[in-house]
Amino acid sequence: MKRRLSLRTLLVVVLVMALSVVVHAQVVIRHMGNWDAFDPNSDIVAEAIEKVTGYQVEYSMLPVENMNEVLSLRVSNVGAYDSLKLNSQQYNMLTAQKALLPLDDLLEKYGQRILEVIKEETWEAAKVDGKIYGVPEVPPAPNVNHVILARKDILDELNLAVPETVDEFYDVLKTIRKEKNMLPLAMAQHNFALSVVTSGFGIYHAWMEVDGAITHQVEHPKMKEYVEFMAKLYEENLIDQDFPVNATQHVVEKFTSGRAAMIPFAWWQAPAVLAALEQNVPGSEWVVIPPLKDESGNRGIEVDGGILWFVGIPQGAKNVEDVVKWWNAKLELDNHKYIALGDEGVHYYEENGAYFPILPVFEDERNMANWYLTGVDQELYPTYWASRVRKNAHMSKVYDAMQELRQWGSVNPVAWAPALPTVSKYTQSLNLLTQDNLVNFIAGGDDVRNYGDFVDAWRASGGQESTVEVNNWYQSR
Amino acid sequence: MNKRQKHFMKESKVERLFSALNVFLLLLLAAATLFPFLHVLAQSLSSETAVISGQVGLFPVDPQLGTYQYVMGNSQFTSSFRVSVIITVLGTLGAMVVTTFAAYTLSKPHLPGRNFFLVLFIFAMLFHGGIIPNYLLMRSLGLLDSIWVLILPALVNVFNLLIIKNFFEGTPESLEEAARIDGANTFSILFRIVLPISLPVLATISLFYAVAYWNDFFRAMIYISRPDLKPLQLYLYEIVTQTQRPLTDVPVDSAMNLTPAAVRSATIMATTFPILVVYPFLQKYFVKGIVVGSVKG
What we know:
The structure holds two protein chains of two kinds.
Chain A: H1 2-26, E1 28-33, H2 44-53, E2 56-61, H3 67-75, E3 83-87, H4 88-96, H5 104-110, H6 112-117, H7 120-126, E4 127-128, E5 131-132, E6 135-137, E7 146-151, H8 152-157, H9 166-180, E8 183-185, H10 195-198, E9 207-210, E10 213-216, H11 223-235, H12 248-256, E11 260-266, H13 270-280, E12 286-289, E13 301-302, E14 309-312, H14 320-330, H15 333-341, E15 348-351, E16 354-357, H16 361-366, H17 381-389, H18 393-403, E17 409-410, H19 421-442, H20 451-475
Helix pairs in contact in A: 13-18, 15-17, 19-20
Chain B: H1 2-9, H2 11-44, H3 48-52, H4 66-73, H5 75-106, H6 114-126, H7 131-140, H8 158-170, H9 173-181, H10 186-197, H11 199-215, H12 218-223, H13 232-242, H14 252-256, H15 261-296
Helix pairs in contact in B: 2-15, 4-15, 5-8, 5-11, 8-11, 8-15, 9-10, 11-15, 13-15
């Protein structure tokens, strides 16, 4: 009797287990992210995630252009997606449309690990009307991304020190033009506000705090001086005369062929650009130009801050609990490391607490791991992420040199702002307006004395509304 | 007077001058379209260093084939290639069947309601609902994220339909009458009499459809979110577009993975080549078909 009972119990247990496996296997999470140039369903990282979380996932992507419009359309198809990875603009858009599910209760029940590894201040910034609609992911590090890179061998040859002030910068350009008769600084049309140079005028990023209020750089009291300075450079042939029509590729071409002494530079350009420079101009060396000092000796440069991504659940999604469990499982200590870095000794090795990629396996099997992230451990992920920069010697070197500038790092105050629908609405068109006008001023198409007219036009085209919205948030923090 | 006479006398010379100029201009035009193509081809076969430093003109510098190896080995490329071949083959076949049937019916003046349907077709050619209503329609039909959404909505191109219809109207009625007296029904008349004598226009329109299906990326951009259903042109479009965004707009991790310039060129070549191969085989019909269709219309 006793034996039969235990047999029966065993049978029931086995049945329940089998059933739960079946039920579990039936859940397929449909996750949509932003665009990248690969197929996320066939990448090996997808397999790794399924292995450690047990969840089957179907991945899809937004297009590379018009992603926000397409996102709106797709989310209107209720029930088609369970999990969305959104940039902050998309997050703002969907929360404004009330298209995302509040996550507070779900996270409390199934997302303990998620709550644990993300800092309180980050959660606060992700809230909309006091509720969490998305798990926030901060940038992997407070990176300095954009500087000016100069040919050190040329500076040395002309006995020029790395410029620290606006005047020194001008003299360096002038000397290079005079002595070497080469293009001192190549630049593209979207480089109209070179942050290394604007720093010399007290402007570090798009929005600046001036006397307790937030002001856009366009309206910054010193912006006109910056434009005048750049116009002078253009007139004296010290910056690229093709600047109004140049795209990045033209600028890179001039620098790598040895025709230009400086270019606006992001560290991820290093692998291609510095390899080409090395080959075309043997013996060339480079140096990072730090942000220039203003009259009172201050300087600053933008570092990544705020929230880069959110993962959320659209209203009407089916497998809500499983989605949160899935996110949670991915952040468990071992899983998180395995997804981001792979196996020790196979994909990476550790040295003095830092992780280094083993190539080419890392490149083949973990290169796209970042795309799959749905939240990161704010303490640990930066150390995992750093291995990605070390994939390439050039990149690693430039990156390290640029990160020394973090001592002057400054975060755009708006980076931490929650949903700002008006700003989102106008950012793109205002940028375009600013680019058109600044390029025109700098290249002499319009007199800088008319800068005020441009500011008026900027205000009237949504700049005024945006500024009001930013300041309403800023004062009420 | 004298001048005019001279002019008149030398007309053959003027004519020769004219054709020389004509040939020259056409060569210039041909060169203008050929050079960019050769430039991209040269880039695709050159080293990345040579490409980004602007050393590549019409001939490869530091020749290599690694870019093509990379493109062919890319999982997204191979799956997109398959999708494009499927939609082009199925789409062209389907479109030809549907368009021909519609055109044949509409070419019969004695059919009641012909004008009504013709107007409906032309109305649909000139006016359409726009992206969002179309999206809602596809959604209600359950076609989103399916390969059929890339095929079905493009089955009938009214312009092509009118060309075929006009061609059919130009075929001698007496042929059909003779067949009918011999006991043929409508289907055998269409398949055994009308279609065989309409081969030029059918070849031309097939090519139009095939090229349209092969080159379409917009529909996929709107309706397809599953990467395994992306056609080749959408993949190409994305690869090319990604690098045109200003660097400041690209998240750090994507920026690290930007497709190298030489690989981009190789992708362009690899996507263009298959449809390019089709042209020479159909070209003789192509020219003739258009002329016949338009003249008889």
